[in-house]
Amino acid sequence: MRRPLIVGNWKMYKTPAEAAAFVTQLREVTAAVQDVEIVVAPSFPALLPVRDLLAGSAIGLAAQNMHWEPEGAFTGEVAPPMLTDAGCRYVILGHSERRQYFGENDAFVNRKVRAALEHGLIPIVCVGESLAEREAGLTEKVVTSQVEQCLAGLAGDAVANLVIAYEPVWAIGTGRTASPADAQEVNARIRELVRDLFGADAADRVRILYGGSVKPDNTRELISRPDIDGALVGGASLQVESFTGIIRACEEAGKR
């Protein structure tokens, strides 16, 4: 069965010192957690100190973005081998903020997904519709197109081992959350699409998360849905108490 995954995306918050203090405390309070996989995604400058402090623990490390080239004259970018050398296991790709503010599109994300897999990184591929698209009844069309294009050309085994995160853009950082029923409906559609494109094994194994104003008080109901395998957490991952509350709620949901 799919093991639940909780990922904390810290975005452009926490200096290396703040990140170090956070993970030191997080490691202590989650030491007994076994049934939930925990991952944190600090900013690039904090990756190395966080890696060192997490050594020997079960908490994984993710980067928030990367370029698709292994090296080159791309000022300001970070290459996949740099992330693996920094101890990353995961990398978040295609987040709506990357799309909105930095012009990334599905073709860019596809190139990054391929590069991540080639370098032994597990992509967390973000998809989701805007408020205008949702109100126009285009959620399924938009999410289907994103999944198809972002995962184009991949083999079923590769898709089975990556992570897809459904994050409705209108719910990110707004305090608004898709209802558990709505989130389940979209996640189920994503799994059905993976089944159609990549086969039953990939669909059964791929973990599909929900993201968008996830908090301790709504986690259990979200995670209890059959096609929601965890959460990509933004603001609530910035405080140890709230992030731990989400992890505990995931445990209590009894997902296996």
List the helices and strands and how they pair.
Blueprint: E1 5-9, H1 16-29, E2 37-41, H2 47-54, E3 60-63, H3 80-85, E4 90-93, H4 96-102, H5 106-118, E5 122-127, H6 131-135, H7 139-150, H8 156-161, E6 163-166, H9 180-198, H10 200-205, E7 207-211, H11 216-223, E8 230-233, H12 240-252
Parallel strand pairs: 1-2, 1-8, 2-3, 3-4, 4-5, 5-6, 6-7, 7-8
Question: What is the element string, with H for helices and E for strands?
Answer: EHEHEHEHHEHHHEHHEHEH
CATH H level, superfamily name: Aldolase class I
Helix content: 40-55%
Q: State the total count of DSSP E strands.
A: 8
Average of pLDDT: 95
Number of helices: 12
Unreliably modeled segments: none
Helix-strand makeup class:
alpha/beta
Largest β-sheet summary: 8 strands, parallel, barrel
Strand order of the largest sheet: 1-2-3-4-5-6-7-8
End-to-end Cα distance, whole Å, is 6 Å
Characterise the protein shown here.
It is a single chain. With 256 residues, the protein is an alpha/beta fold. The protein has one domain (5-252): Alpha-Beta Barrel (TIM Barrel), CATH 3.20.20.70. Helix content is 46%, strand content 14%. It is built from twelve helices and eight strands. The protein has helices at residues 16-29, 47-54, 80-85, 96-102, 106-118, 131-135, 139-150, 156-161, 180-198, 200-205, 216-223, 240-252, and strands at 5-9, 37-41, 60-63, 90-93, 122-127, 163-166, 207-211, 230-233. The protein has an eight-stranded parallel β-barrel with strand order 1-2-3-4-5-6-7-8, surrounded by six helices. Helix 7 (139-150) packs across helix 9 (180-198). The protein is globular. The model has no long low-confidence stretch (mean pLDDT 95).
